[in-house]
Amino acid sequence: MNKKLRKAVIAGNWKMNKNRAEAKALIEELKPLVKDADCGVIVCVPFTDLETVLAATEGSNICVGAQNCHFAPSGAFTGEIAATMLTEMGVEYVVLGHSERRQYFGETDVTVNKRLRAALDAGLKPIVCVGELLEQREQGVTAEVVGMQTRIALGGVSAEELKNIIIAYEPVWAIGTGKTATADQAGEVCGLIRATVADLYGKEAADGLTIQYGGSMNAGNAAELLAQEDVDGGLIGGAALKAPDFSAIVAAASK
Ligand code: PEP
């Protein structure tokens, strides 16, 4: 982290977990544990929990995000949620391009870019996920893959809009597997993403961009990962479902 240049942010991705009662209980447990955090704290929750979590976090330092949004403003897209439907509720953030959306729901770099456009137009702050597959890492094309994902996702995004975006580097082989990238691997790829952004927008814009690492980050490995200059926080899956685990990562990012 380099807190002089940019904000550290820890975001929880609850995925398809927690009903409304469980969501409220988790937030109530979390609030006192993270109230003095010296970093941004976000919880990205299932659509059905948004109203509950928005109410439970009111007046606290916990921000609320969704886990996806559609690129159209409205229309015949059964099962989808428009970006403006989220902002109308008071939702601030949205995760886009998570590898599970890419793997199971046909998300591509191009649809990530379209969703990003819609999210920005609606006033949402996107957390854009990029990351290589295990085969790609083994073939030595991580830099090319992540660079391309970053460039396509940011197509048409202005330097001003970039200020509202977080990029999350999530190596697909590390998500939900218990396999964490080493601190050096995470730092190297987050640095590559920053270099790509510098190429597109200039050094100052890239220096101000928050880039998270995600992939089996937990209370035990967070400090080492966050010690990397270019790792500005974390996108946390499994460890976000328990208040003590999540708050320990927030504490590591607050140092
Ligand atoms: C994620 O879902 O973005 C993630 C990083 O999951 P986990 O922390 O469980 O690997």
Description:
With 255 residues, the chain is α/β, with parallel strands linked by helices. The protein has one domain: Aldolase class I (TIM Barrel). 44% of the residues lie in helices and 15% in strands. It contains twelve helices and eight strands. An eight-stranded parallel beta barrel has the order 1-2-3-4-5-6-7-8, surrounded by five helices. Strand 2, helix 2 and strand 3 form a beta-alpha-beta unit. Helix 1 runs parallel beside helix 2, helix 1 runs parallel beside helix 12 and helix 7 crosses helix 9. 45% of the residues are buried. The mean pLDDT is 97. The structure holds phosphoenolpyruvate. Phosphoenolpyruvate binds next to strand 8.
What is the topology, as strand order, of the major beta sheet? 1-2-3-4-5-6-7-8
- In N-to-C order, the SSE pattern is EHEHEHEHHEHHHEHHEHEH
Q: How far apart, in Å, are the first and last alpha carbons?
A: 10 Å
CATH architecture classification? Alpha-Beta Barrel
Low-confidence stretches: none
CATH superfamily: Aldolase class I
What helical percentage do the residues reach? 40-55%
Radius of gyration: 17 Å
* CATH topology category name: TIM Barrel
* CATH classification class: Alpha Beta
Tell me the major beta sheet. 8 strands, parallel, barrel
- Share in β-strands: 5-15%
What class do helices, strands and sheet pairing give? alpha/beta
Number of helices: 12
Shape: globular
Give a count of the beta strands, DSSP E runs of length 2 or more: 8
Number of domains: 1
Mean pLDDT, nearest integer?
97
Distinct ligands, ions and cofactors found in the model: phosphoenolpyruvate
